[in-house]
Design goal:
The chain is an alpha/beta fold. Helix content is 54%, strand content 13%. Residues 513-651 form the GGDEF domain.
Length: 948
């Protein structure tokens, strides 16, 4: 890896505009210089251009600096506004001086008096400029700094004074015939220029870094002004000077340069100055030399002493007597140099001591840090490695120094690391001072360590602060694995499986219709948990997951969605034959079903479960969630269709689910909207045709006028709370209507079908039935409760206690659906049953099937031997009446007598009292206890109740 990538050069906004401004400025100055060199064509024009032209240029500089100070300076340059205001005032003084000079020379056509107002204005030019330079300078932060600044200024000014006094000023000061005012004025100009030059030179090496281009341009303008003043004060030039000559072109250019400084230079370099990174150098190359400005700044005191020496030598060589001013000035310059060197020596000693302390601190931090600090050259060669490398990487720091960084990084990570390093080096340092990379690093043992490094720029190369994060990466990977996998089976969980399905539908296989999702449910798993325990159930799930994982292909995904539900993602093979692909996936699903249905060996026991599998294929524009939903629907269709089978998804399954959902939603409000009605079906004596009881049945007439039977609406009422509410309504409505019929003279018992689990529900406590009978005034013997299910999870002990308590209240108990369900014999053995109600499935085939005839006959004999009443449900044809009566069944209900009746028709039937019986009166083949007539008895003694 080479860190010395080519750095992109950022274009400077406004660069084109700045170049045009510079060209215009150069053209104007060149035009003025050309006119001055040619004499402007006439003396009159030369006077105008030499006086008012300079005044106009100085006025432009004054206005430009003033406008910039008032509104053009940015937030970062607000502290420099006084400097530009001072430059504006200084230029205004120059403009006024040139204006007064022109007034005398051009307008009045008189010689300019000496001294005059023009001299006053010219003398006021230098002081504001000097103060403005002080404002622009980088201010010292210590007293020693201020002292050094004053000494540097005197060194420069004193040396220039020595030289200029030796060359010209001494002659000016002793010029005979001149007045004191004229001599002072003649000395004031060069002395102020010397001070201005001293400040320009002293502050040139101390200028602020903010808006450096504008400050440099302003200093250049002032330096050009001082140079022209020095030439003007020279006796050789001043004796022959006239307005409009070439010397005026220097003053003119200096004023325009000062006017351009704040605006043009600012456009060239907007915003904070960002020093470009140093260019990369070849290995072994010497470091770049120090900036020339810094060297000149250090040599300034010695140059000043040299200038003083030259001034004194000039007097000696010319044979002149050494002037006392020269001697005094030279001595003060030397003394200032000595004092300055003493201050610098003390300062250097302090800096050296501080540097040694910081170096010791740095060495202690680097060598004692647990992080590895490395310095890489622009070529990628390691130049320094801290001692921590031995503990982190297992390699000595000396062995790493001189090696290439690229050889230590994992090949798979190298391209990404090079890209990140190049992007970091190309970014501006102020926007991105540091970067961060993470890669694998070769250790001394040859293994790859996960390393996180913070990178910084260093002389075109890099400083890397690295630490070993292998354990953190492993922990993150483990946490990620745990978040995406089932903790019991270690298969992908629902979240990861959904993501895999989404990838399969959005990747290169998006157009492959052969991709399929299988939803798998283990039939009978709950019985395993209930019978042999949850630990055995967990072991069964682990074995099932292992079988599933071994059965799918390498590119497919097997997952556990939760509980006993699994899933598999079968990726398509690119085949366009949809029918063949469906057959292939169906074979895979059937093979999975057979595999999962094989016996499981758990704790020495053989456990069997089956598998119901739903299959859904990917379709165009089907999302992952919709595809999984389709497979889920197909799986539930497989379970409802008999279990242990494979079902393919069909679009009508979704329509059925929508209908069931809508029906369930309407059912939730049906009770509150009064849409349920109660019908009663007569229970008839098969011998006499007399109505012995009525069986209450609920019907739901929806707002759309559709009448739903219990089989239809109970199938969607899977909400246990809604089912409980419906059961409470049925019981209370049946008791209320039976009480009203009793008061009307129809003392007919009513039978209400309730699930056994509802009797044990806390929502129906024991006292609620007694309170219901008391509230409506119904004798307890007039209520028969039919147990309508045989859930094996119900505790028979608790159910037996509840039924015994109900019988104490006079409530009779009937066992509904006798002949179906494995718990019927156990119920007969343990529960206090009064009536056996034959299952409809036995009654339907009792005439055609000899086997069912024998079974039914045997069950009726059992009921007779136990002294129980018997009722046949679903007696729809006369032949069934004759057959059942011949076998000893005493009562029946069905379409052979009457269907469910509303209250009006039921009362008419009760008034009539009997239904015609096929074959007339007949004696039962099996003798049993006679059915006594019902009498209303309000005592607590048991009252004989006809069967339901």
């Amino acid at each position: 890896m080479s860190a010395g990538a080519v750095l992109p050069h950022r274009p400077v906004p406004g660069g084109g505009t700045g170049l045009v401004s510079q060209l215009v400025l150069a053209v104007i100055c060149a035009g003025y210089a050309t006119g001055a060199a040619l004499g402007w064509g006439s003396p009159e024009v030369a006077d105008v251009m030499g006086d008012f032209g300079l005044s106009a240029a100085a006025t432009a500089a004054s206005v430009s600096c003033f406008l910039y100070a008032r509104g053009g300076a940015g937030e970062g340059e607000s502290r420099f506004r006084p400097a530009w205001l001072l430059f504006s005032f200084s230029s205004a003084m120059a403009a006024s001086g040139n204006g007064v000079w022109g007034w005398y020379q051009v307008v009045l056509e008189h010689p300019v008096p000496s001294p005059s107002m023009a001299d006053l204005f010219f003398l006021l030019f230098a002081p504001p400029a000097i103060v403005g330079l002080l404002v622009l300078a980088k201010r010292p932060v210590t007293r020693a700094g201020w002292v050094c600044l004053a000494l540097d200024s005197w060194l420069i000014g004193g040396s220039l004074l020595t030289l200029s006094w030796s060359l010209a000023l001494a002659h000016t000061a002793h010029f005979e015939g001149e007045s004191v005012a004229r001599a002072a004025l003649a000395l004031a100009y060069p002395l102020l220029d010397i001070v201005l030059v001293s400040m320009v030179l002293a502050l040139h090496f101390r200028r602020s870094s903010a808006n450096r281009s504008a400050i440099n341009t302003a200093i250049a303008a002032l330096a050009l002004t001082v140079l022209c003043d020095a030439l003007y004060t020279s006796p050789l030039l001043r004796a022959h000077y006239r307005s409009g000559q070439l010397l005026d072109a220097g003053w003119f250019a200096a004023s325009l340069l000062l006017a351009y400084a704040p605006w043009g230079a600012r456009r060239l370099a907007p915003g904070p100055a960002v020093p470009p990174p140093p260019p990369p150098r070849r290995p072994g190359a010497l470091p770049a030399s120090r900036p020339i400005a810094g060297s000149l700044g250090a040599l300034t005191p010695y140059l000043a002493a040299a200038v003083c020496t030259l001034g004194i030598l000039y007097n000696v060589i010319e044979g002149r007597r050494v002037d006392r001013v020269v001697v005094f000035t030279g001595c003060t310059v030397v003394l200032a140099l000595v004092v300055r060197q003493g201050i610098m020596l003390v300062d250097n000693i302090a800096l050296t001591h501080e540097l040694a302390q910081k170096e010791n601190h740095f060495r202690s931090l680097v060598q004692g840090s647990s992080d590895v600090i490395m310095i890489a050259a622009p070529t990628g060669i390691l130049r320094y490695v801290s001692p921590a490398a031995a503990g982190v990487y297992g390699r000595d720091a000396e062995d790493l120094v001189g090696s290439e960084l690229a050889s230590l990084i994992h090949p798979e990570d190298l391209g990404r690391v090079v890209h990140e390093v190049r992007r970091f080096l190309a970014a501006p340092p102020l926007e991105e001072p540091a970067g961060r990379i993470e890669c694998r690093f070769r250790s001394g043992t040859g293994e790859w360590l996960n390393v996180e490094s913070t990178i910084n720029r260093h002389q075109g190369g890099l400083i890397l602060n690295s630490r070993d994060v292998t354990e953190r990466v492993r922990l993150q990977a483990q946490l990620q694995h745990n978040a995406e996998h089932d903790p019991l089976t270690d298969l992908p969980n629902r979240a990861l499986f959904t993501e895999r399905v989404r990838q399969a539908l959005s990747g290169r296989r998006a157009s492959d219709p052969g991709t399929a999702v299988l939803f798998i449910d283990l039939d009978g798993f709950k019985q395993v948990n209930d019978t042999i325990g949850h630990q055995a159930g967990d072991e069964l799930l682990i074995q099932a997951a292992r079988r599933l994982q071994d059965s799918v292909r390498a590119g497919d995904t097997a997952a556990r969605l939760g509980g006993d539900e699994f899933a598999a993602l079968i990726l398509g093979d690119g085949s366009r034959d949809r029918a063949a692909r469906q057959r292939q996936v169906h074979e895979i699903a059937d093979r999975l079903r057979l595999t999962l249905s094989q016996p499981y060996q758990i704790d020495g026991n053989e456990v069997r479960v089956a598998a119901s599998i739903g299959v859904a294929f990917a379709e165009r524009d089907v999302s992952a969630r919709e595809l999984m939903r389709n497979a889920d629907l197909a799986m539930y269709r497989a379970k409802s269709g008999g279990k242990n089978r494979v079902e393919m998804y069909a679009p009508q399954m979704q329509a059925e689910v929508v209908r069931k959902t809508e029906l369930a939603a309407r059912l939730r409000t049906a009770l509150h909207e009064g849409e349920f009605a109660l019908l009663h079906q007569p229970v008839v004596n098969l011998t006499t045709g007399r109505v012995a009881a009525v069986a209450a049945q609920a019907r739901w007439r929806s707002a759309q006028g559709i009448l739903f039977t219990p089989a239809e609406f109970l199938r969607v009422a899977d909400d246990s709370e809604r089912t409980a509410e419906l059961g409470r309504w049925l019981l209370e409505e049946a008791v209320e209507q039976a009480a009203e019929r009793g008061r009307a003279g129809h003392d007919t018992p009513v039978a209400v079908r309730l699930p056994a689990r509802r009797l044990l529900d806390k929502s129906m406590p024991l006292g609620s039935v007694e309170a219901l009978l008391t509230r409506h005034g119904l004798p307890s013997g007039a209520l028969v409760i039919e147990l309508s299910d045989s859930d094996p999870r119900i505790s028979f002990d608790e159910l037996e206690r509840r039924l015994v308590s109900l019988r104490r209240l006079g409530v009779r108990i009937a066992l509904d659906g006798f002949g179906s369900g494995y718990a019927a014999i156990n119920a007969l053995r343990r529960l206090p049953i009064d009536v056996l109600k034959l299952d409809r499935g036995l009654v339907e085939g009792v005439v055609e099937s000899a086997r069912l005839h024998k079974i039914t006959s045997g069950l009726l004999r059992i009921a007779c031997d136990l002294g129980m009443q018997s009722v046949a449900d679903g007696v729809d044809v006369p032949e069934q009446v004759l057959a059942l009566r011949a076998m000893g069944c005493t009562h029946g209900q069905g379409m052979a007598f009457s269907g469910p009746l509303d209250e009006y028709r039921l009362r008419r039937a009760l008034v009539r009292g009997t239904f015609p019986v096929p074959g007339g009166a007949a004696l039962p083949v099996l003798s049993g206890r006679a059915l006594p007539s019902v009498r209303v008895n309000h005592s607590n003694s048991e009252t004989p109740v006809p069967p339901t």
